[in-house]
Design goal:
Layout: H1 2-17, E1 18-28, H2 34-53, E2 57-64, E3 67-75, E4 80-92, E5 95-105, E6 123-128, H3 146-161, E7 164-169, H4 194-203, E8 207-215, H5 228-236, E9 242-253, E10 259-270, H6 290-311, E11 315-323, E12 326-329, E13 342-349, E14 360-373, E15 378-381, H7 386-389, E16 396-399
Parallel strand pairs: 6-7, 6-8
Antiparallel strand pairs: 1-5, 2-3, 4-5, 8-9, 9-10, 11-12, 11-16, 12-15, 13-14, 13-16, 14-15
């Protein structure tokens, strides 16, 4: 009886974890090719499903003689798709609308996502300074520059992973109100920063990594007195000589300024200001101390967390020029792009009643195929002229 109850609970938990959603997709019917339009609309509907479930989707359809012969859909490891079917199809002139219904559920047993073709590309990331919320907690010259040395150490680790292009701007402080970071005074509800967008555009970065050091104080300030008794107590271990370390890492989308990742990291270990570790924060001598080794381990964890967070994000490149059917992108071989790669084009647009708001991306229903790739830019061709689909500078090319 107990086994039956456990089995029923397991089955019910599986049912609850799945969500049945419907996605809507549109496509233009060109040259009366209904099958091609259906495939494009289905792909758009799958992306709509992904956005609803906060997952990443990559769909590849194969057409032979105007018929759909193969369809492959890749989802991130945070979601599984089951029983996807087209439940409604409506045609109005040359516009086709389809509705896809599918079961979406969290995937189990995997620690990293599978972001399709985007996982093999190197996204450009800018890392700024990590200011100390309470600088007076340092109390030691070797810790005064922690706000710049910490992000520099993080940059070194991210570069060693080789999975992204890392740019450093560690002397730049993004936040004016450190205790409440990253909340913006201009838009408290949206919780994003306008200067993130400006910095990302200046550096050509897709993401901006920043943060704050929230706690760097000693556990017992009274343990560090200069009297003979204080020194004796420290020497025989009667007082707590540990120092805390707590830092918060934040990753922002450079296109919208919105946060895509946020996590606090903390540790504590014995602190000895006169022993090993007086050579400065994140220096060789620093990492020989117990506290320095503990902080170094936290920075390792930060680098892993940032990499995992960005590996699930699509790869995005800004359109810098459109001439007839030729398009130039602000990304090239250093990002991993190669001739023959295909990127979907998304229109970037704002509305007159919210010019200061986040720009919206709309699927232009066309893709660019690269035929000329340089280190920092690339060019390709559209199937139609850019004017026909209104592709302009500052639109985005995306690989999921």
């Amino acid at each position: 009886m107990k086994a039956i109850v456990l089995l029923l609970l397991w089955v019910c938990s599986g049912v609850v974890s799945a969500a049945v959603l419907e996605g809507v997709g549109h496509a233009n019917i060109r040259e009366n090719n209904l099958d091609q339009a259906r495939a494009e609309a289905r792909q758009a509907a799958m992306r709509d499903l992904a956005l609803q479930y906060e997952a990443s989707v990559s769909t590849q359809d194969t057409l032979e003689n105007g018929e759909l012969t193969q369809s492959r859909t890749r989802l991130s490891a945070t979601a599984q798709l089951r029983n996807a079917t087209i439940v409604d199809e409506y045609r109005s002139g040359n516009l086709l609308r389809v509705v896809v219904r599918a079961e979406m559920a969290d995937a189990s047993g995997t620690e990293s996502c599978k972001a399709g073709e985007a996982s093999g590309l190197r996204k450009r990331v800018a890392v700024t300074g990590f200011p100390i919320v309470r600088p007076q907690q340092g109390g030691n010259p070797g810790l005064d520059d922690a706000g710049e040395k910490l992000p520099q150490a993080l940059i070194a680790r991210l570069q060693s992973q080789g999975r992204m292009q890392v740019l450093g701007s560690t002397s730049l402080q993004l936040f004016s109100d450190l205790p409440d970071a990253p909340t913006s005074r201009q838009n408290l509800a949206a919780n994003h920063l306008t200067n993130v967008v400006q910095l990302a555009r200046e550096l050509g970065a897709q993401f901006v990594v920043s943060g704050v050091i929230r706690d760097i104080g000693v556990a017992d300030p009274n343990a560090w007195g200069s009297s003979i008794v204080n020194r004796m107590q420290r020497g025989i271990g009667l007082v707590d000589t540990s120092r805390r370390f707590e830092a918060e890492v934040m990753v922002f989308d450079g296109f919208s300024g919105s946060p895509v990742f946020r996590q606090r990291f903390e540790t504590s270990a014995r602190w000895d200001p006169k022993g090993a570790g007086t050579g400065g924060f994140a220096s060789a001598g620093f990492e020989k101390s117990e506290w320095g080794q503990a902080v170094s381990g936290v920075i390792d964890d930060m680098a892993i967390a940032v990499n995992n967070a960005l590996s699930c994000q699509p790869f995005m490149a800004r359109v810098t020029r459109v001439e007839s059917n030729r398009v130039t992108l602000a990304s090239g071989a250093t990002a991993g792009l190669r001739p023959g790669d295909e990127l979907n084009i998304y229109r970037s647009q704002r509305y007159f009643d919210s010019l200061d708001g986040t720009p919206e991306l709309t699927d232009a229903k066309v893709s660019i195929t690269l035929d000329n790739v340089h280190p920092d830019f690339s060019t390709g061709r559209l199937p139609v002229t850019g004017g026909q689909v209104n592709i302009q500078r500052d639109d985005m090319a995306i690989i999921w």
